[in-house]
Design the sequence.
């Protein structure tokens, strides 16, 4: 993942340098649209693969979002970034990983079968005893041998992310309301 992150960071900073050269002639809403289209989408592209990535690589991607927020607000490098991210309503890079959205799609039949077949509800697992917790909407977390590769696998990482959600978020009736509740919960949790 180091090569992918390096490529994304380099291309995003190149685009930021180009946008900075025309920043003065653009209104803020146009600048924000450019940054979302050219920077944020690159950082978010296939970000579910970034689950379990090292903190160093997360920090490199976060530096791109920080630079984009400073560009939008014309802030100095020494200014604190949290208020800027809060005003833009942007999550930090580890929270942007969309494993929970993929898990929701798998559990509600909106994902391809090669993904949804890997996630097993505790109530559907025949090897478990009939306990009260068997009726809960949690997923079975498979044991892994390697923390580097096994814990990053989709069935394991998605089940752990789903388990961490509060019931008010995981019980959402639609994908749109789930995304809204998830972002609100993550935003309150981190920023």
Sequence:
């Amino acid at each position: 993942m180091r090569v992918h992150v390096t490529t994304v960071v380099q291309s995003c900073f190149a685009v930021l340098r180009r946008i900075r050269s025309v920043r003065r002639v653009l209104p803020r809403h146009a600048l924000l649209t450019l940054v979302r289209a050219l920077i944020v989408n690159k950082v978010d592209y296939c970000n579910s693969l970034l689950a379990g990535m090292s903190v160093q690589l997360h920090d490199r991607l976060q530096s791109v979002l920080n630079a984009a927020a400073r560009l939008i607000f014309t802030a100095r490098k020494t200014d604190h970034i949290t208020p800027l991210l809060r005003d833009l309503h942007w999550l930090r890079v580890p929270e942007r990983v969309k494993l929970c959205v993929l898990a929701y799609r798998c559990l509600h039949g909106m994902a391809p079968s090669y993904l949804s077949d890997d996630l097993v509800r505790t109530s559907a697992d025949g090897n478990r005893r009939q306990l009260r917790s068997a009726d809960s909407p949690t997923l079975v977390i498979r044991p892994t041998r390697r923390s580097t590769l096994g814990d990053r696998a989709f069935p394991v990482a998605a089940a752990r992310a789903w388990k961490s959600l509060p019931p008010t978020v995981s019980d959402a009736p639609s994908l749109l309301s789930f995304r809204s509740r998830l972002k609100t919960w993550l935003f309150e949790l981190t920023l």
